[in-house]
Amino acid sequence: MSLQALRIPTPGQVVVLSGNEAIARGAMEAGLGYAAAYPGSPSSEILASLAAVSRERGFYAEWSTNEKVAMEGAAAASYAGVRSITIMKADGLNVAMDFMTSLAYAGTRAGMVIVVSDDPGAHSSTKEEDTRYLVRAAHLPVLEAATVDEAKTMVPWAFELSEAIGLPVVLRNVTRIAHARGSVTLGPLTPPTREARFDPNARYLTLSLFHPVLHARIEEARARFETAPFNRYTGPADAARLVVACGPGWTYATEAVELLGAKGEVGVLKLGTTWPLPERLVASHLTHAREVLFLEEVEPFLETEVKSLWAQQTERGPVRFLGKASAHVAGPSGPSIGELTPEIAIKAIAALTGRELEVHGNGFAERAAKLALPDLPPRALAFCAGCPHRASYWAIKSALELDGRKGVVVGDIGCYTLGVMQTGYFTVKTVHAMGSAVGLASGFGKLGLLGFDQPVVAVVGDSTFYHAAIPALVNARYNDSPLLLVVLDNCTTAMTGHQPHPGTGRSAAGDPAPPLPIEAVARGLGLDVDIQDPLRTAEAVESVYRLLQTDGTKVLILRSPCALLPSTKRTHRAVVDPARCVGESCGCNRFCNRVFSCPALVWDGERGCARVDDVLCAGCGVCVDLCPRGAIRLEETAAIAG
Amino acid sequence: MKRGGPADLEARVLSADLCTGCGACLGHCPYLKTLGERVAFVHPCSLTEGRCFAVCPRTSLDPDELDRRVLGTPRLDVFLGSYRRLLWSRSLDADIHGRAQYGGTTTALTAFALESGTVSAAVLTGGGPTSFPQPVVARDRDAVLAAAGTKYSACPTLVPVAGLLRESDEAFAVVGRPCQVAALRNVQANPKNAHRFAAVIGVFCFWALAPSFYRFVAAHGVLTRATKIDIPKEGGVVFSNGRTTTVPLDEIRPHIRPACQTCLDPTAEWADVSVGSTEHDSAWNTLVVRTARGQALVDAAVAAGALETRPYPPDRIPILRAAVAGKKRRVMAAVDEGDPATRYLSVSDDTRAAIMAGGRDVQ
Fold first, then answer.
1. Residue A381 domain flag
2. pLDDT (tens digit, 9 = 90+) per residue, A426-465?
3. Are residues A584 and A631 in the same domain?
4. How far is A527 from chain B (nearest CA, A)?
5. Which of A589, A595, A628 lies at the smallest CB-CB distance from B47?
6. Interhelix angle for A148-165 vs A19-29, to 10°?
7. Which of B42, B132, B134, B190 is the best residue to mutate to test the A interface, defined by the most A CB atoms within 10 Å of its own CB?
8. Between B34, B42, B45, which is nearest A589 by CB?
9. Angstroms from B31 CA to nearest CA on chain A
10. Which domain holds residue A465?
């Protein structure tokens, strides 16, 4: 992280920031006083950056238990006259949605910005959502930055807009902005207010009475969008071919038009304010266009909005609309599937203008083949070497097979979602949303009346436990649903980058926080809790097995720190004794590297036996327990000086 | 060596609920595991042949072949198998009497085998009678005494055997149920292992209880405190710990392990010696001495004053044979009915005819 760049007070200086850092800087320039988020790629670095400088800048930043709580906290700050920001990924907005739709009715006071990061192509997500539909349902304005610098500039503007219309403003971000790096022109840093106070005469209520007020506020936002600095048109004044683009689609469009030599023919309308649509601005360009192409991320949102607008125009000529809805803008998997790319943009604009451009010309294929490593084997997604989840799934799977009643494992959201794949032995059979494993398990558990006789295991991570599993666990307890909740506690929010959570005893800013152990929560619900180390396979298997045989709602915590945590020091290394490993002639049939599949366990073809890759081995010792020949042993690693 | 693979074992034995829980297939690989007296593949094994299949007493069993290979003689008695001596016996050790079942013969012989240096380890079944027993490798008299007493469920006692064979070259004793004795003789079919079992002591077993028995015990709080279980000739199943609680046998029968219903061998016909109750005098055991190795062990134990024997009362022999005949005939009837659970048995027509017709004295 370019934390130093975030601290630079000098206005006008140009620095290189990621999109996420740029948003953090923009908020600091706007006098941010309160920031709250739940981590989720590609949004996580915004709050992480803010938290790292929060103490010295005198504002508040927290990792919240979930996105809804984060948004509620930010709204409270707004009501006390403090500019606030809340940040989440698209999935998180679903969690916060109930509050956001209420907040739109009740309105805000000091500026409040909601950053929602979509993940087109689902690089690090289970689904590919387009946030704009939800924000429109809540009646809140949507901004979309096209560049890293614009992302920074948009944030203070969004705060101003929020205060002008009394509503939170949503900045819809996408991975290609969030994780891209670009030059950013810094503005002056503004300290937060020190006069936080709730006006005793003020009221912020969610009442249907305010529905017309909300509509009026949105019309006010629309009016301001007509002249917003983020919307602009480039190209011939009367271009018959128009590209309407937002987000990274705009840079792709600009580049494609130039590469195709179509600048004299094609106009590009950049929209940074995508909802409510600045209708007069858009209509003014529809009047000269006969063909309109849309470049936007994920769904044909803007496309539909503009078509709807065109349908209302009385003075309209025949216009052809080309985009995802018409399948003219499509990647290899089809329109609205996957991320927008420069290649898609070039192909679409080439088709629009009847031009041809070999996207990967100039001997690209030959050069790429030369650069690519020959014979690179395909690799499945896998748990890291020493990952406790691999051991946990082996234990759960073993216990279920030994139980023999065809138990069902319902999964959740985290690194351990990989339990659906080979690396988790295909153990997990359902994946939905944060905390859903426990709700599903609670439901399965109550089907006994209808003949269901399979044991049910819900698997959630530690951060997910706090996020959304607790209400479902209360439900299971209340309704006495026989399920086994296994919390895969790796002592961090691992998948999103090791953020702290309520169990870790650390705050977002790195200060000590009162630890809230999972077992204390579960025992507080009156549940029996067992705690095991998943790296001790036999004990873990026995515990899962025993709990499967036990009636009622049970909780097992399989606790072992993430192997990638800086605090997880390697104290041992696994070593294969070639004299004991009998290789292909062993009944194990290359179990350690073929089935258990820790990346550190490799097959030594020359010696015909297993070998440990010492660079990867975390020294967890699970393979030592599982090798039937006792051919793997642990050695203490030599202490490293310093 | 029988040839077959894990898939065959799964199809013919495990998923058919015909596993006796002997434990012989375990300890060779990371795929087959046991908990709660259930054996299962925790992950599919893709090998086409395996020791798991070869040693299993339920992938196939040919009594005539075992007679020839283990005892070297044609069968002496169609019901009791071949034997050199049929005796009553008891331990002469007061400690053993305090802990063991009936005459304490099994405990006395095992302890003697260890103390006399005949074996350096003994694979036994330890634990209390009201929760899952566990395999034990005893290396001294105290450990043998700690494992004394009959357990009534199918402990996978043989789990440590694979490791002992692999990790050492010592000779050891095994005390097992008849199915476990048959499995050990399969293990011995590998010439590498032939000399390793210095004393195979079989215990009579007409059936073992399934894991559901322990749920039954747990559901009846008073039973969980029992330190000893017995099924005396007077009837019922007696749980005792100072005071006794008798449960009607009909309440226990539903918990009999399914595999035991099709077992043709209640007296461990291929053991070196087999030990059971007398069904008459609770201070003594029935002792069937079958092999030369068994004879030598018993003779040495008697000479050392560890064991006392007396001739089997002639009038009791027909009663013993009748009990075994009843079991064998029930199983043969199932064979005749084509019960798939009996397909593992290869019983020659002569043997079959002998079982159904032979031994007029036990009609």
1. no
2. 999 999 999 999 999 999 999 999 999 999 999 999 999 9
3. yes
4. 21
5. A589
6. 40
7. B42
8. B45
9. 8
10. 388-559
Q: Across residues A515-524, what is the average pLDDT?
A: 96
What residue has token string 């792709």?
Answer: A252
**pLDDT value of residue B363:** 44
Out of B33, B42, B51, the one facing A587 most closely (by C-beta) is: B51
- Backbone phi and psi for residue B49, each to the nearest 5 degrees, phi listed first: -135, 145
In a shared domain, residues A541 and A592: no
In this structure, are A178 and A311 located in the same domain? no
Task: Decide if B166 touches A, using CB distance below 8 A.
Answer: yes
Asked if B35 reaches chain A (Cβ–Cβ under 8 Å), the answer is: yes
CATH code: domain of residue A298: 3.40.50.920
The three-class DSSP label of residue A231 is coil
- ipTM score assigned to the predicted complex: 0.92
Give domain status of residue A204, yes or no.
Answer: no
Domain assignment present for A91? yes
Same domain flag for A588 and A462? no
Structural domain ending residue among the three candidates A528, A559, A590: A559
Q: How far is A385 from chain B (nearest CA, A)?
A: 19
> What is the total count of domains within chain A?
4
d(CA B127, CA A277): 77
How far lies A421's CA from each of A415, A429, A590, B245, in Å?
A: 11, 10, 19, 52
Tell me what the mean pLDDT of segment A546-573 comes to: 94
Distance from CA of B163 to the nearest CA of A (A): 9
Residue A440 has, within 13 A of its CA and on its CB side, a CA count of 21
Residues in chain B within 8 Å Cβ distance of A399:
35
Write the CATH number for A420: 3.40.50.970
Contact between A626 and B34 using a beta-carbon 8 Å cutoff = no
Q: Report yes or no on A182 lying in a domain.
A: yes
**A396 neighbors A456 (Cβ within 8 angstroms):** no
B40 and A CB contact within 8 Å:
yes
Q: Would you call B201 helix, strand, or coil by DSSP?
A: strand
Q: How far is B106 from chain A (nearest CA, A)?
A: 31
Q: What confidence tens digit (pLDDT) does each residue in A371-409 have?
A: 877 777 788 899 999 999 999 999 999 999 999 999 999
Asked if B308 contacts B93 with a C-beta cutoff of 8 angstroms, the reply is no
- Give the closest of A404, A588, A596 to B40, CB-based: A404
Cβ of A587 within 8 Å of Cβ of B50? The answer is: yes
Distance CA A18, CA A1 (A): 8
Amino acid at residue number B59: T
DSSP class of residue B259 equals G
Residue of A nearest to B52 (CA): A587
User: How does pLDDT run across B35-48, given as a tens digit for each residue?
Assistant: 999 999 999 999 99
**What is the pLDDT, as a whole number, of residue B358?**
65
* Secondary structure E strands in A477-528: 483-489
Size of interface A-B (CB pairs under 8 A): 57
- Give the helix ranges, DSSP H, for chain B: 6-9, 51-55, 63-66, 94-99, 105-115, 141-146, 159-167, 178-188, 212-219, 249-252, 292-303, 317-336, 349-357
Do A591 and B33 lie within an 8 Å CB cutoff?
Answer: no
> Which of B28, B35, B42 is nearest residue A397 as measured by Cβ atoms?
B42
Please report residues of A whose CB lies closer than 8 A to that of B36. Answer: 402, 545, 549
Could you report the per-residue pLDDT of A487-506, keeping only the tens digit for each? 999 999 999 999 999 999 99
State yes or no: pLDDT of A206 exceeds 70: yes
Which residues of A are less than 8 Å from B38 in CB distance? 402-404
Interchain proximity A545–B35, CB inside 8 Å:
yes
Say whether both A539 and A593 belong to one domain.
Answer: no
pLDDT at A310 over 50: yes
Q: Could you tell me if A291 and A341 lie in one domain?
A: yes
Q: Are A8 and A148 in a shared domain?
A: yes
The tokens 């739109």 sit on which residue? A104
